[in-house]
C-alpha cells in the first residue's frame, strides 16, 4: 500500500504525463492529500487501467487539500526541450495549488527547485507515495482528455487511442499526412527523419 512521504508536512506530490509523446502537451499535476488519506486502488497511472484512472480522478479532486494541473504545449517544448518543459509544467501546476506546500516530492531523479521550498526526487515515486501517485493520475487523465479533444480535429492520427505516443500507427499517419501544429517539431517523428509537410489547423 502506498504511503505519505512525510506525515507531518503539507506534502505536495508532483508528476508529469506525455514526456515521450510525439504530439500534444506535456502535462503535470501537483497534489496535496490529507494526512490520513487512504485508497487501495491509487497507484502509478501507468499500471492503473483507464477505467480505474477515471474513477480515481474525482476521488482525488474531492479529497485533496489542494491540486493543480498544467499543460506545456509543443511550441514551448520545442523552444526549451522536453526536460525543461516537464519541470515548467510541474512549476505551473504548483502555482495553481491554493495551499503552499512545506515540502515537494517529485517523481524521477531531477527537478528545478520551486520557490525555495525543499524537495526530494524519488525514482519510481509514483509507485511508492500517495501524493505522487495522485498527481500521476491527474496528469494522465487531464492529458488524455486533451488528446481526445484534438483527435476530433485530426482523426487520422488516432490520438484518441494512442494519445500522441510513437505507435506504429501514429508514425505511419505522420508519414502519410505530415505534421500538425500539435506535433513536437524538435522530436524525431520518424525513424528516418524525412522532410514533412506541416498541416494547417
UniProtKB/TrEMBL annotation:
GO terms for cellular component: cytoplasm; ribonuclease H2 complex. Keywords: Cytoplasm, Endonuclease, Hydrolase, Manganese, Metal-binding, Nuclease. It is found in: Cytoplasm. The lineage of its organism: Bacteria, Pseudomonadati, Bacteroidota, Flavobacteriia, Flavobacteriales. SUPFAM superfamilies: Ribonuclease H-like. This is Ribonuclease HII. GO terms for biological process: DNA replication, removal of RNA primer; mismatch repair. Its EC number is 3.1.26.4. A divalent metal cation binds at residues 15-16, 107. Manganese or magnesium. Binds 1 divalent metal ion per monomer in the absence of substrate. May bind a second metal ion after substrate binding. It comes from Arenibacter nanhaiticus. Pfam families: RNase_HII. Its main location: cytoplasm.
Amino acid at each position: 500500500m502506498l504511503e505519505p512521504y512525510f506525515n507531518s508536512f503539507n506534502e505536495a506530490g508532483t508528476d508529469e504525463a506525455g514526456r515521450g509523446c510525439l504530439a500534444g502537451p506535456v502535462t503535470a499535476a501537483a497534489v496535496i492529500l490529507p494526512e490520513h488519506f487512504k485508497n487501495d486502488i491509487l497507484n502509478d497511472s501507468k499500471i492503473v487501467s483507464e477505467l480505474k484512472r477515471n474513477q480515481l480522478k474525482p476521488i482525488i479532486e474531492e479529497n485533496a487539500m489542494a491540486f493543480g494541473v498544467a499543460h506545456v504545449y509543443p511550441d514551448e517544448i520545442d523552444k526549451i526541450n522536453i526536460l525543461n518543459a516537464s519541470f515548467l509544467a510541474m512549476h505551473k501546476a504548483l502555482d495553481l495549488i491554493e495551499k503552499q506546500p512545506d515540502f515537494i516530492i517529485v517523481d524521477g531523479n531531477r527537478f528545478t527547485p520551486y520557490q525555495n521550498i525543499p524537495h526530494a526526487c524519488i525514482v519510481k515515486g509514483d509507485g511508492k507515495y500517495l501524493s505522487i501517485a495522485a498527481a500521476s493520475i491527474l496528469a494522465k487523465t487531464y492529458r488524455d482528455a486533451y488528446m481526445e479533444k484534438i483527435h476530433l480535429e485530426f482523426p487520422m492520427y488516432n490520438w484518441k487511442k494512442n494519445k500522441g505516443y510513437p505507435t506504429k500507427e501514429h508514425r505511419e499517419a505522420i508519414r502519410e499526412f505530415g505534421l500538425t501544429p500539435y506535433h513536437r517539431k524538435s522530436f524525431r517523428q520518424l525513424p528516418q527523419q524525412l522532410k514533412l509537410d506541416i498541416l494547417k489547423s
